[in-house]
Amino acid sequence: MDYKTFYNFMLKLTNAFEKSSCRKDFLDSLEAAFSKVLQVESIKIYVLDEFSYVLKDFEKPWESSIEQAQNAKIQEVINSFIGSKDYTKLEDNIIYMPIFDNTKIIGVLKIILDKKIKPDNDFFEISQLVQKQISYAVLNFKSGEKMKLNTKFYQTIRNIAKIIETQYELSYILPILGEMIDSFIYEHLIYIFIKNKSKKEFKLVWPANIKDSKIYEYLEELTPKSGVVIERDGKVGIFPLLSEQKLLGAVVAYNPFDKLNENEINYLDEISKQASITIERASEYMKILKDATLDALTGLNNRHQFALRLREETASAKRQNTPLCCIMTDIDFFKKVNDTYGHAVGDCVLKNVARTIKKELRENDIPSRYGGEEFAILLPYTTLEEAQLVAQRLRSAIEKKKINIEEYNIEGVKQLSVTISIGVSQYDKKMKEPQQLYQNADKALYSAKENGRNRVVVYDENL
């Protein structure tokens, strides 16, 4: 190996260590470096999981384990390095290098070579230096990811605690809790259950379905004093949601193949405790705000107040023989906003949409936040044709609105734009219940969303 080849190899290797942003980048850079001195087909790193001691693919640590025959071979290679002074092994067209944590072997680098070309002996003379550098790089990746995980844990705890600053309806909060926990513990499926006080049974509230009904049997055994329950040799973890030693529900982590490790159990236990506090406070807020009229986040009428005004306005329209219309609208792809930018940005979008709605309406119009990203608007003394014009004006104003999100420090994004879908209906004296007015508008809204979104649809009986 001449000096220039050696220099280029070490330069590429250093770049792999210093500039790789993720595990795949690191492996690609390693392959580029080794290609300077070897005829490389592919490179893999296998590392022992520090909790389960199962071999995992370094590039895809979320996968349960590697294929059985491959696992046996790698274990055999690891054993062959124990007590040996060798830093490489060449078998057929494969070079193996041990990965060390101090004196302990924690994995193996596997380089598959072109079968036709044998490696230069000079490569094996520098293998000790190369092997040590790669071991340090792997350990640095793992320690860096641990720090990121700890940071994400505290962010998750803080975000769960902050939900009740702007939200208090459990039907809205619980899915958010599920999404937050699910994004943190990505190797396991996460389920949120709430205990029905009257029926004394657990109801799945997030997500919509569960893959293993056996979990319900585990939940039946849960009591306020049970603590964290681990089933199926660590593959199922049940974390109670408690309030003053009363069982509110449970967070369940499930993986049919992989065990929860000690860190994940501790993280989930703490997250569940914070979720319990959030649910308890939300319930208290609901009691306090039961008689309130305004939505805490948007400043519009809340759902309870909308129901009261709906009865008043339908009664007035019937008595005075005046027109009354209803608009139901929601933000298109709002879940994508939350998933991409976070719930704080989602709340910012809701507030801006509400502000625009209020600005575009007349003084006697009655806007309300119906729930989540859905808004209901009553338009007294308004014909259906006039209501359509109002709806189109609202749709256009929201579409043109640029929402400033600079304060949330989203890389490369300073503004957001969203659209809304709208359903419009008109009150008819033949309606038996006031609810029919907004139910008809809701059907029209559903049609607007089904037919492309960002549009206005007027209710008719054929919808």
Tell me what the structure shows:
With 463 residues, the protein is α+β, with helices and mostly antiparallel strands. It folds into three domains: 3-143, GAF domain (Beta-Lactamase, 2-Layer Sandwich); 167-289, Beta-Lactamase; 303-458, Alpha-Beta Plaits (2-Layer Sandwich). Helices cover 46% and strands 22% of the residues. The chain has 13 helices and 17 strands. It has helices at residues 3-19, 23-34, 68-81, 121-125, 127-162, 170-184, 214-220, 262-289, 303-320, 334-341, 343-360, 384-400, 435-450; strands at 40-48, 55-57, 89-91, 94-101, 104-113, 189-196, 201-206, 229-231, 236-243, 246-254, 324-331, 366-371, 374-380, 403-404, 415-416, 420-426, 456-458. The protein has a five-stranded antiparallel beta sheet, sandwiched between helices. A hairpin with a 2-residue loop joins strand 12 and strand 13. The longest helix has 36 residues, at 127-162. The radius of gyration is 30 Å and the shape is elongated. The mean pLDDT is 89.
Report the mean per-residue pLDDT as an integer: 89
Structural class comes to alpha+beta
The CATH C-level class name of the largest domain: Alpha Beta
Q: Whole-Å distance between the termini?
A: 77 Å
Low-confidence stretches: none
The CATH architecture of the largest domain is 2-Layer Sandwich
> What is the C-alpha radius of gyration, as a whole number of Å?
30 Å
Any idea what the CATH superfamily of the largest domain is called? Reverse transcriptase/Diguanylate cyclase domain
Q: What pattern of helices and strands is seen along the backbone?
A: HHEEHEEEHHHEEHEEEHHEHHEEHEEEHE
CATH topology of the largest domain: Alpha-Beta Plaits
